[in-house]
Amino acid sequence: MPTWLIVLIVVVAVAVLGAVIWLVTQEMQRKRLQQRFGPEYDRTVAEKDSPRAAQRELAERERRHKELDIRPLSASARERYVGEWARVQEKFVDQPSDAVAEAEQLLNSLMAERGYPTEGYEQQVADLSVRHAKTLEHYRAAHTTQQKRDGASTEDLRDAMVRYRTVFEDLLTDGADDEHRDEHRDHHDRRNGHDHGVHDRTGHDHDRAEVHETDQQEADRRDTDDRHTERQASANPRTEWNGGR
After folding, report:
1. In angstroms, rounded to a whole number, what is the distance separating the alpha carbons of residues 125 and 132?
2. What CA–CA distance (Å, rounded) separates 210 from 204?
3. Each residue of 9-49: pLDDT tens digit?
4. Are 133 and 39 in contact (CB under 8 A)?
5. What is the distance between the alpha carbons of residues 29 and 66, in angstroms, rounded to a whole number?
6. Could you tell me the pTM of the whole model?
C-alpha cells in the first residue's frame, strides 16, 4: 500500500474520531443543560435562532452565576423575612394591589441579601434561572400581574401573591440544607471526638486489665510453686529439715 494512501487513511480516521467526540460532547452538554434548566431550556431554545445559540446563552448564565457571591440566609434572617411576608400577606385582605407591590419589593430585598444583583428584571430572571428554574415561571407571571396591578382583578392579584410566595419560599430555603449539613457535620465531629475519648479510656482500661492479668498469672505461678514445695516437704520432712540445718 502506498505511503500517501496510509497517510490519507490515518487523516480521515482522525477526522472522523474528532467529529464523533465533538458530537458526543455536544449531546452531553445538551442533556446537562436540559436537566439543570428544565422548562427554561426549551424556552431559551424557542427564543434563540438555534439550539446551539440557546446552549451558549445558558452556559453564559452559568459562568456569570459562578462569579456571584450567592450565600444562604442565617436563621435569624430567615425568621425576619418570614415575619415580613406574613405582614404583607395580611395587608392583602384590605389592600391587595399594594400588597402585591410590596411582595415584589420584599422578594427583591431577599434576592439582594442572598447575593443576587437586582438592577434589572431581565437580568434577575437570567441569574435566577441557574438555581431556581423550577419556580421561574411563577416569578414571570407574578411580575406581569404586578406591572398592571391597578387594572388587575382581585383574583389575578391573589394568584400573583401565591406565585410570589412560591418563589419567596424557594429563595428563603435554598442553601438552608447546606447550613444544616454543616451544623450536623460539626455535631458529628464533636460527638466522634467524645467517642475517641471513650475509646482512649477503654484502651487505657484494657491495658490496665492486661497488667492485672499478668500480675494474677505471676501470683498463681508462685502459689503453685509454693504448694509443690510444701508437698515435697511433707513427703520427706526430716531430709528437708536436715538439709536446712
Report:
1. 9
2. 10
3. 888 888 888 887 877 776 777 787 778 888 888 889 888 88
4. yes
5. 17
6. 0.63
